Amino acid sequence: MDYKRILTVQDISCVGQCSLTVALPILSACGIETAIIPSAVLSNHTAFSGFTFRDLTDEIPVIKEEWLRQNIGFSAIYTGYLGNLKQVEYVKSIMSECLEKNAVKIVDPAMADGGKLYTGFDMAYANEMKNLCKEADIILPNITETCLMTDTEYKTDLSKAYVEELISKIRSFYNGKIVLTGVGFSEDKTGIAVCDQNEILYYEHEKIRGGCHGTGDVYASAFTGALISGKSLFDSAKIAADFTYKCIKETEPEHWYGVRFEPQIKNLIEMIK
Ligand code: PXL
């Protein structure tokens, strides 16, 4: 049977177009049954001037045990922003206990951007994320996250030699597929570097303006939706890049806190047909 049920584990930021409020609509639009574990509930994401945070770490093993009792399993897992080290450990146990044979494991090590860790994270968390990546089939780090996981100096002026160095450093701890995001070789370009085995394929497109919050979550969700819908690794990475580009184009600069992906959902559905 080709029916896929995916599990995504991320926080709910009630306002802010990131994590579950992005992943759930995008994966559903791709026609995929999506189960969730909310890892925390925040009033809004952490780039706002303040936020409330209700940690749900202790719920994760409780939910897992109930699923095991009922024999509920998943054909794919996609993880994004997780709140703390313990959650990363719990996600690893879900990967080993709740997934069907040959389930695809997609990890977006969402923890940093623009050369900096997000508020609340430290290097111990970055190291634990690196360990979670080791368990994955596909990882989707941006340049900052890659630098943190490989102890490399963060640069904004990218060259192919630098990107190849980053990918070869990832290869020292991880053998799966890599979709490196935010890879552009001139000021007005951004894109992706996709590495299945050794070969690196690039896809560049126009960069609309400097960083839009939540872009990584829109990208990872669209990528996952396309991949689980049966597209190849490179096509999924390209569809997600085109979709994210269109979404950012929809987003007025004043809408600083997120990406307006909603008006573009119909185009994503067309792209994955
Ligand atoms: O993946 C972005 C993200 C998700 N969730 C929360 C965040 C952020 C980025 O800052 O704060 C709570």
Q: What is the strand content?
A: 15-25%
Please describe the biggest sheet, giving its number of strands, its sense, and whether it closes into a barrel.
Answer: 9 strands, mixed
Helical segment count: 9
CATH class: Alpha Beta
Task: Determine the N-to-C terminus distance.
Answer: 19 Å
CATH fourth-tier homologous superfamily: Ribokinase
Named CATH topology: UDP-N-acetylmuramoyl-L-alanine:D-glutamate ligase
Helix fraction, binned, reads 25-40%
Q: Which H/E pattern describes the elements?
A: EHEEHEHEEEHEHHEEEHHH
Shape: globular
Structural class by sheet pairing and helices: alpha/beta
Tell me which ligands are bound. Answer: 3-hydroxy-5-(hydroxymethyl)-2-methylisonicotinaldehyde
Rg, alpha carbons: 17 Å
CATH architecture: 3-Layer(aba) Sandwich
Please give the number of β-strands.
11
Q: What is the number of domains?
A: 1
Uncertain regions spanning at least 5 consecutive residues: none
Q: Can you give the mean pLDDT?
A: 96
Task: Summarize the structure in words.
The protein is of the alpha/beta class and 273 residues long. The chain has one domain (5-272): UDP-N-acetylmuramoyl-L-alanine:D-glutamate ligase (3-Layer(aba) Sandwich). It is 38% helix and 24% strand. It is built from nine helices and eleven strands. The strands form two sheets. Strands 3-2-1-4-5-8-9-10-11 form a nine-stranded mixed β-sheet, sandwiched between helices. It has a two-stranded antiparallel ribbon with strand order 6-7. α5 packs across α6. The protein starts with a strand and ends with a helix. The mean pLDDT is 96. The structure holds 3-hydroxy-5-(hydroxymethyl)-2-methylisonicotinaldehyde (PXL). The site of 3-hydroxy-5-(hydroxymethyl)-2-methylisonicotinaldehyde (PXL) has 15 residues, from β1 and α7. 3-hydroxy-5-(hydroxymethyl)-2-methylisonicotinaldehyde binds at residues 11, 13, 18-19, 42, 45-47, 80-81, 110, 118, 214, 216-217.
